[in-house]
Amino acid sequence: MDYSQIEKASAIPEAASMIETFRAIGYNIETAIADIIDNSISANAKNIYVDSNWVGDKTTITILDDGDGMNNEQLIQAMRPGAQNPLAARNVTDLGRFGLGLKTASFSQCRRLTVLSKRKDYSPVYWTWDLDYVNETSKWELLRYIPEEYKTALDDRQSGTLVIWNNLDRILPIGTEQSNEFALGKFTDIMEKVKCHIQMTFHRFMEDKKTKFYFWSREIKPWNPFLINEPATQAFADDYISGGAMMKGYVLPHKSRINDETFKNAEGINGWGAQQGFYVYRGKRLLLAGDWLGMFRKEEHYKLVRILIDLPNTLDSDWQIDIKKSTARPPLACREQIASYARNVRANGVHVFRHRGKVLKQKLGQDFEPLWLDKKKGNKWSFVVNREHLMILELRELAHCQPDKAIEQMLRFIEETIPSKSIYIKETEEGDNQKKPFEQENLEIVKSMIKKIFDNQIMSGRSPEQAKATLLNLDPFNQFPELIETIYGND
Ligand SMILES: Nc1ncnc2c1ncn2[C@@H]1O[C@H](COP(=O)(O)OP(=O)(O)OP(=O)(O)O)[C@@H](O)[C@H]1O
Ligand SMILES: [Mg+2]
Questions:
Q1: pLDDT tens for residues 68-100?
Q2: Fewer CB in a 10 Å sphere around the end CB: N or C, the chain?
């Protein structure tokens, strides 16, 4: 198109409303702080410190690093929304993409963002975005302001950056007093969650030992989702996905094979059931923790399955990485490859989950005696009561002297122990081939029961039509109308 021939009108974004809109991208405090830490890692920080200073509604959160830092010109550029083109190629270790994170993550939590930075051989510099000022003036203008107590924070360092969040209106409403114990308790809980999120999101950097992370001045430990140091963890072969991505499946040990503390710790922030699924990393930084990427549902019996996917940042647009770095979508072309790899790992995961009985048996050195047995005939499956079970033998004895009590107890045990979980798993594994009542069986037992009920009905004065109607509505005999018909016909 020849743009020179076309009339134009200026449509510059309106600063006040635009900057408020940045607040609505959907971060929570955990993902927001992780986004700030991304920048520290990209800037080659060796140490990263997350801190907070409780002063009620004047509380600050700070993220300090000893990375490369910025000079004045670079800092102003960094503070500009959209400082970089998302299409530009990035260094392999760069965790950034959109040129927005520093601003959008900060504004999602606070109304005043100050960055103090020092580049080697330069003096420290600082600038502040103050949303109240932008609102008042509707100008895209930074303020040369820093809270007094932080002014000299980088003076003794060769290089580094300090991000300061002030006026945290999203978590601390205006008017919150410093003496408010309840608010302090809530704030502390929120910060604990942030700590757990950092332990998980950046665990590979902590394990590499190239970067140390501190929270409230104490070094924090990594949370590895795959229990790689447990001998009972099953690790599957790596599989390569086009474009330089790879995946590796893990089936975590059954509860009975690890100690209670390890088991509790491995459940992570959201609990065992929720933590199953893919763990998508981008440049070693975790984007998604426990998500089946729309391919499968989360189910109890797959809770031991976790699959690592590693992405390089060159695949950002193919995998639709978002600004918050909290979602990813596999491209259509590799979905089947990923799903098929996952199906194999999941099948093994179910195996480990179901064989807890076997493990117990090994531990006690005795044979495990199930009440329900898994039976297969042709392609039909069912569960039957184990007639040799000690309790059934006892009930047979009891039936001689107290038949009513024996029947009642047997019914009770059946009700209480119906293997619904195993049936559910079977259905997922083998499809809908569950044997129907008395299917493929000799029907004599059904016939004789129908006959008995029919005779009793007649004896109690009902007509053959009425007796037949009763049987046709009686579970499970309603499934055998032709049998009811014959017996009725013969009579
Ligand atoms: N802690 C830091 N140390 C050094 N430079 C930084 C730091 N934080 C931000 N920067 C600079 O500011 C720029 C803008 O950061 P910002 O987080 O807004 O965008 P990004 O990291 O480039 O991309 P994304 O939006 O994906 O996070 C970065 O590219 C980097 O050059
Ligand atoms: Mg960033």
A1: 999 999 999 999 998 788 888 888 888 988 889
A2: N
**Surrounding residues of ion ligand 2, Cβ less than 5 A:** 38-39, 96, 101
Rounded Cα distance between 386 and 321, Å, is: 53
CATH number corresponding to 15-219:
3.30.565.10
**To 10 degrees, what angle do helices 332-354 and 420-430 make?**
150
Ligand number nearest to the C-alpha of 321: 1
Three-state secondary-structure class, residue 163: strand
| Cα R_g (the chain), whole angstroms | 33
What atom in ligand 1 is closest to the CA of residue 325?
A: 26
- For residue 397, with 0-12 CB atoms within 10 Å meaning exposed, 13-18 middle and 19 or more buried, which class applies? exposed
Beta strands 277-282 and 239-241 are unpaired
Does position 405 have pLDDT exceeding 90, yes or no?
A: no
Nearest Cα to Cα of residue 299 among 490, 412, 427: 427
For the chain, domain boundaries: 15-219, 234-357, 372-430, 444-490
Q: CB under 6 Å to ligand 1: residues? A: 35, 38-40, 43, 65, 67-70, 78, 83-84, 96-103, 161, 323
For the entire predicted model, the pTM comes to: 0.75
272 and 210 in contact (C-beta within 8 Å)? no
Q: Convert the pLDDT of each residue in 189-199 to its tens digit.
A: 999 999 999 99
259 phi and psi angles, rounded to 5 deg: -75, 160
**Alpha carbon nearest to ligand 1 atom 29, residue:** 99
- pLDDT higher than threshold 50 for residue 357: no
Q: Is the pLDDT of residue 130 over 80?
A: yes
State the chain's mean pLDDT as an integer.
90
Residue pair 449/389 in contact (Cβ under 8 Å)? The answer is no
**Which residue has its alpha carbon closest to ligand 1 atom 28?**
78
pLDDT of residue 366: 55
CATH number attached to the domain at 234-357 = 3.30.230
Give the closest ligand to the alpha carbon of residue 106: 1
Check whether 116 has a pLDDT greater than 60. Answer: yes
Q: How far is the CA of 420 from the centre of ligand 2 (A)?
A: 48
